[in-house]
């Protein structure tokens, strides 16, 4: 591995603000370490991030999914959903999330995100 590649891998933060990522994002994590996916969210609209399909629980485990409201006092302001996972062992897993209203089961989600997790 080239020195620049090692430096890039070293500088990858464990906390990801991935709302700027289009539809598919790649996350590199170390076994035994936590990583957090942060997604813009506004539950006042009825929408929330949900798992779109099961992920490989042998590779990663969901520790917590929580909403953090905006610090602004504006009514209806959006905040951030934090999904914290633990990387269990080396391998790859896929996290598929959808931004949808839970009661609209036959309607396509407003947004979808896929995270490809590489645990080393």
Short description:
The chain is mainly beta and 120 residues long. The chain has one helix and eight strands. It starts with a helix and ends with a strand.
Describe this entry's structure for a reader:
The chain contains 1 helix and 8 strands, in the order αββββββββ. Helix content is 8%, strand content 48%. It is mainly beta and 120 residues long. It is globular. The chain has one helix at 3-11; strands spanning 15-17, 24-29, 34-41, 48-51, 60-68, 79-87, 91-100, 111-119. The protein has a single domain, classed as Sandwich (Immunoglobulin-like).
Query: How far is the N terminus from the C terminus?
Result: 15 Å
Order of helices and strands: HEEEEEEEE
Mean pLDDT: 86
Number of strands: 8
Low-pLDDT runs: 6-19
How many helices in DSSP terms? 1
So, CATH architecture?
Sandwich
Percentage of residues assigned to helices: under 10%
Q: What oligomeric state do the depicted chains represent?
A: single chain
Question: What structural class do the secondary elements suggest?
Answer: mainly beta
What general outline do the C-alpha atoms trace? Answer: globular
Strand content: over 45%
Evaluate the radius of gyration: 16 Å
Topology of helices and strands:
Elements (H helix, E strand, L loop, with lengths): L2 H9 L3 E3 L6 E6 L4 E8 L6 E4 L8 E9 L10 E9 L3 E10 L10 E9 L1
Parallel strand pairs: 1-3, 2-8
Antiparallel strand pairs: 3-6, 4-7, 5-6, 7-8
């Amino acid at each position: 591995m080239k020195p620049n590649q090692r430096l890039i891998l070293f500088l990858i933060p464990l906390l990801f603000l991935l709302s700027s990522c289009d539809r598919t994002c790649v996350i590199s994590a170390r076994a035994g370490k936590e990583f957090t996916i942060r997604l813009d969210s506004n539950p006042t609209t009825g929408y929330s991030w949900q798992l779109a399909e099961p992920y490989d629980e042998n590779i990663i485990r969901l520790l917590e999914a929580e909403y953090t409201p905006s610090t602004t006092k504006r009514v209806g302001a959006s905040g951030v959903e934090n999904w914290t996972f633990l990387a269990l062992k080396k391998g790859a897993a896929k996290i598929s999330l959808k931004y949808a209203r839970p009661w609209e089961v036959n309607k396509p989600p407003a947004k979808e995100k896929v995270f490809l997790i590489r645990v080393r």
